[in-house]
Specification:
The complex is a heterodimer of chains A (303) and B (351). With 303 residues, chain A is an alpha/beta fold. Helices cover 39% and strands 14% of the residues of chain A. In chain A, strand 6 (113-117), helix 4 (121-124) and strand 7 form a beta-alpha-beta unit. By secondary structure, chain B is an all-alpha fold. Chain B has helices at residues 2-31, 50-57, 65-100, 112-126, 135-155, 163-187, 191-200, 208-227, 229-236, 239-244, 249-271, 277-289, 293-317, 326-345. In chain B, helix 5 (135-155) packs antiparallel against helix 6, helix 8 (208-227) runs antiparallel to helix 11 and helix 12 (277-289) runs parallel beside helix 14 (326-345). Classes of the chains: A alpha/beta (303), B mainly alpha (351).
Chain lengths: 303, 351
């Protein structure tokens, strides 16, 4: 038993040593050289770019679309499996998803830059020292415009990026200069449905912002969670004027036929619409989504 | 006396065979990957052939650094980590099954996985970052230990810890943490999918750091549990009889609990919840080598390492370049084999 006791103490000592040792290992690895561009990415990391990237792997559909929109499609050598626009993306090598990336394929592609969603970080930590990684985390329309500028700067496409931003801004203004003057009673109440009945968008989401910009009021705008589940009762009681369902969710017919929903204004007045899921993400096409929503909310103003 | 020697020779042969199998599976797995000889490859880039892999392994320098990175920094740590985690989970499973005298026991039986899941989900959802370290892992590990601490103290009764109490407390606390995980999943936004993937478990984010963090603790934990295999054998016959041969049942139980918990907690925190391995591999080995822990623990440990290395290799190569969570593969391939053994033996003498 004495030998065992000694072994146990040894184990505990080693456990503590390992904890400190690995902490030290992780804390002490940094390489310093002069960079061409230094910027702060979406999660606050400092990223250094030494030369305009020629081979980019994009693990964020949003970044993929931006790269295409500013004329860098040639530079994309790999994408994640959720990047599916524009259609040409399907000719690119797929490297898995943010949740289970194939690190070997990413490194094998020898990219100069890897763009990924912020939540992919845990999975990309092992290759952060081999590939320049930029994490993105756009949470508002303004963030998306900033992101376009940032990617433009990195890819040496400042003019193209600025042109795209200007164009988007002017289209956004066309809508908001009309909608910002609407008072509360002129704005339709909107229920926006995601994957299942009741699942919607609340505070701090991109779609919530788009709904307001398009001149509507989201019935869940004050919910504390970003993706709350509303009860039937609440939705019926709020009596939304317009219902928008995202394309991967329920069909318009299904919503119209839901029991107890017949008296909702949106259903009585046939104002239930399905929106392409790509138009409500952090990509340049969010303007299309905004225009679409505005037309549905205010057909008299935007047709 | 003669029987004794014959048994020893048999045991040595078993260990030797399983060890050879493990080495073979490591080499096989090193060959497989997107960029490997049996891989899909990526456009415009050369694949790494078998000869090159061997040369890289023995330290020859004249190869592209990217290739070295792929073999030495991505594939090798992943294979080693799979081996360590497999061995740790299976050994913990063996010890738990022995301790609880219950074939349903797995390393996760006391809710460790739920505790770890809560820690990980919390870190993912809040985006915590402590000291620049991987907070997911740290929180997962801490909450796994917290879980076991709470369970142990709930189960404690007049200085002793009856196994029935432990089981029930483990289930209760486990459910509590599961509920918290569900709550976090509910309030999470885009992080939801990241949480779901973590819960499914996998080795795609293996790195040398994780190998370094896991290895010493796992090896020591396994070694100490192995030292206690004679006690585990006697515990199987009941705590009272254990006491009659001079074993302090409470003390032994505590040590076994602590070390199986530690190696499970470190495994779960690094790879997420990889189910099945720790539950079924000990049973498979019990069917193959018998219930004596002195051979059961080392052979299960080797088999667990081999099994997880091979299933993980399948997971990363079936639908290249995407990956399947390894838990799906472990169950899909392990269960039929287990059922086959179960049917062949008909009457099972578990203990």
């Amino acid at each position: 038993m004495d030998g065992k006791k000694a072994a146990i103490w040894l184990a505990i000592a080693l456990l503590i040593l390992t904890a400190f040792g690995s902490g030290y290992l992780i804390a002490h690895k940094e390489v310093k050289t002069k960079a061409k561009i230094t910027f702060i990415d979406g999660i606050g990391r400092t990223v250094e770019i030494h030369e305009t990237p020629k081979r980019v792997v994009s693990m964020a559909s949003s970044a993929t679309e931006i790269l295409y929109a500013i004329g860098c499609s040639e530079n994309i050598v790999g994408v994640d499996k959720y990047s599916d626009y524009p259609p040409d993306v399907k000719n690119k090598t797929v490297i898995g998803s943010s949740y289970s990336p194939n690190l070997e394929a990413i490194v094998g592609l020898e990219p100069d830059l890897l763009i990924a969603w912020w939540y992919a970080r845990d999975n990309l930590l092992p290759i952060e020292d081999k590939v320049t990684v930029m994490y993105i985390n756009p949470q508002s329309v303004e963030d998306v415009l900033q992101l376009i500028r940032q990617i433009g700067l990195i890819m040496n496409k400042v003019e193209e990026a600025e042109k795209l931003v200007k164009e988007m801004q002017s289209r956004i203004e066309n809508i908001t200069q009309i909608t910002e003057n609407l008072n509360k009673s002129q704005r339709p109440l909107v229920y926006y449905e995601l994957s299942k009945k009741g699942r919607t968008v609340g505070q701090g989401t991109f779609t919530n912002e788009l709904i307001y910009m398009a001149g509507g009021i989201n019935i869940a705008a004050d919910e504390p969670f970003r993706y709350p589940d509303l009860t039937d009762e609440y939705i019926i009681a709020r009596n939304p004027d317009v219902i928008v369902v995202v394309s991967y969710g329920a069909s318009v017919e299904e919503i119209k036929s839901r029991e107890g929903w017949q008296n909702i204004n949106a259903i009585k007045n046939d104002r239930v619409y399905s929106i392409d899921r790509h138009l409500v993400t952090a990509s340049p096409r969010l303007v299309d989504g905004l225009e679409q929503l505005a037309k549905w909310f205010h057909p008299e103003l935007f047709d | 006396m003669f029987d004794h020697r014959k048994r020893l020779i048999k045991w040595v042969a078993i260990i030797f065979f399983l060890f050879a199998l493990l080495i073979f599976s490591v080499f096989l797995s090193l060959m497989i990957g997107v960029m490997g000889p049996i891989g899909k490859g990526v456009p415009d880039k050369e694949k790494i052939d078998m000869e090159e892999i061997f040369h890289i392994l023995i330290g020859k320098e004249n190869y592209p650094s990217i290739h070295k990175s792929i073999i030495l920094d991505i594939r090798l740590p992943r294979i080693l980590l799979a081996g360590i985690i497999g061995a740790a989970l299976v050994t913990a499973g063996c010890a738990m099954q022995g301790l609880f005298r219950n074939p349903m026991a797995s390393p996760y039986i006391l809710g460790i996985s739920s505790g770890a899941a809560f820690g990980a989900s919390l870190a993912i959802a809040v985006g915590l970052n402590i000291f620049g370290l991987n907070s997911v892992q740290i929180l997962a590990f801490s909450f796994a230990l917290l879980d076991i601490f709470v369970v142990y103290n709930i189960a404690k009764y007049k200085g002793a810890v009856p196994t029935a109490n432990l089981l029930l407390a483990g289930i209760a606390v486990g459910y509590f943490f599961s509920a918290l995980v569900s709550f976090i999943k509910y309030i999470a936004g885009e992080e939801l999918r990241a949480i779901v993937f973590w819960l499914m478990g996998g080795l795609w984010n293996a790195s040398w750091e994780k190998v370094y963090m896991t290895f010493p603790l796992a090896v020591l934990g396994i070694f100490i549990l192995f030292l206690f295999s004679r006690e585990l054998n006697i515990m199987l016959t009941g705590e009272i009889s254990a006491m009659s041969v001079g074993i302090n049942a409470e003390q032994t139980k505590k040590v076994i609990l602590i070390f199986s918990t530690l190696i499970t907690a470190i495994s779960v925190s690094v790879t997420g919840i990889i189910g099945f391995v720790g539950l079924i591999i000990p049973h498979i080995m019990r069917l193959l080598v018998g219930p004596d822990h002195r051979i059961l623990i080392p052979s299960s440990c080797l088999m667990g390492a081999t099994f997880l290395i091979l299933t993980d290799t399948l997971a990363r190569s079936i639908i290249q370049p995407s990956e399947i969570p390894v838990g799906i593969i472990t169950s899909l391939f392990g269960v039929p084999f287990f059922i086959y053994l179960l049917r062949r033996k008909k009457m099972v003498r578990w203990w």
